Amino acid sequence: MADIDLQLIEQARVGNANAVAALIRDGADPDARNENGDLALRIAAIAGHFNTAACLLIHGANHNVSDKLGRAALDPEVIGINTLHSIRQYYHRYRDEGDNDEVLRTAQMDEWAGQLDRLGATRLRGLLEPETLRKMQQDFGSFITKLNARVLRREALFERYDEEEHFWQKDRAYVSNNALKYSAALARFCGHPDLLAIIRACLGKQPIITRAVAMRYLPDVEKDSDMFGWHHDMEDRRLKIQILLTDVGPQDQHMSYVCGSHRMYHPYEMFQDNQCSLDYCRETLGDIEIFDAVGQAGDVFLFDSNGAHRGNRRPKGAVRDVFFVEFSTDSSDIWGGDIPPGALDGLDFPQGNPFLALIKANKKWDQPITRELPTWAENLPDISSWLHRTP
Predict the structure, then answer these.
(1) Could you give all domains of the chain from N- to C-terminal order, each with its CATH number?
(2) pLDDT tens digits, residue range 289-332?
């Protein structure tokens, strides 16, 4: 066995992911075995070095390769669902010190990306042009008019979370999971090169758009459950933009976010019940700071939805109109959606079109109900189903 492969196995055993990455770049075999036939990937997984196991997978280790006893490196019968879940979290959030991110072009963009990396949330002040905001507001109004006409006919009342659009009576909310269909302006903004550069810098790879949502919250009593209690979004590495279409003040129905909570790794059980209480956050973070997404119409917030956040309801708060768009490098949970004809004309995507996966995906609202668990969690033992990062 080559000396470099022996070094790789030793670094996998002690859990030095950066050294493993460097050795593979220098020619080490990611599927290297020790003298007993034990695979580096299996050694790292069993030892609980989840980031190192993720590093090996990122750099080409084959989870199906078997050792001399015929055991696959990540055999779900042996490794276990909690270990696989931990490896998956690190896999989708793995950052290699050797990665060469796209250079941010302005000091402002660098500041936004730095704050997002440090806190998990930032305000992209001034990124949305006033004329684009005006078009988005008109488009949103068209969505509300069409949906409300159906509601008045006793149609489109909430039945399940995965519907294309509905009025959720319990939460007094108008919702579309296909928001891009209504707004070419929203689609073009999501292709803004500065926005994509910031997101790429934080994800480490070219992002894909997985869902676009329109929401109107009517004033309602204060709540502490579901999306209105502290929670995370049951994803490992996903960024969301939130575009305010109405002014939202401190006493209105704003979103709150626990700074730094995006860096937390959650146990598998929290992907079945995704409550993420402040006490839970304090156990890991100590003293906590809350970021409140308040501002004027046209303000854009970017946040990592793995972090603890909540929506706030106020019986006397203003109506809140908002667009959300989700960006990820993970293709295992794409909702699908429609893009208005010509909306992307003239846009250049040198790193790859972030809309293609959304356009090609089967629309979730046309599929059987699968909300017992996120799709990727149901498929967790099928490791190949989540070993995907966009180029």
Answers:
(1) 3-92 (1.25.40.20), 107-385 (2.60.120.620)
(2) 999 999 999 999 999 999 999 999 999 999 999 999 999 988 87
Q: Using one digit for the tens of pLDDT, what is the confidence trace for 22-70?
A: 999 999 999 999 988 899 999 999 999 999 999 999 999 999 998 888 8
Interatomic CA distance for residues 269 and 131, integer angstroms: 45
375: burial class by Cβ within 10 Å (0-12, 13-18, 19+)?
A: middle
Interatomic CA distance for residues 178 and 304, integer angstroms? 21
pTM, rounded to two decimals:
0.92
HEC per residue, the chain: CCHHHHHHHHHHHHCCHHHHHHHHHCCCCCCCECCCCCEHHHHHHHCCCHHHHHHHHHCCCCCCCECCCCCECCCHHHHCHHHHHHHHHHHHCCCCCCCCCCCCCCHHHHHHHHHHHHHCEEECCCCCCHHHHHHHHHHHHHHHHHHHHHHHCCCCECCCCCCCEEEECCCCEEEECEHHHHCHHHHHHHCCHHHHHHHHHHHCCCCEEEEEEEEEECCCCCCCCHHHCCECCCCCCEEEEEEECCCECCCCCCEEEECCHHHCCCCHHHHCCCECCHHHHHHHHCCCCEEEECECCCCEEEEECCCCEEECCCCCCCCEEEEEEEEECCCCCCCCCCCCCCCCCCCCCCCCCCCHHHHHCCCHHHCCCCCCCCHHHHCCCCHHHCCCCCC
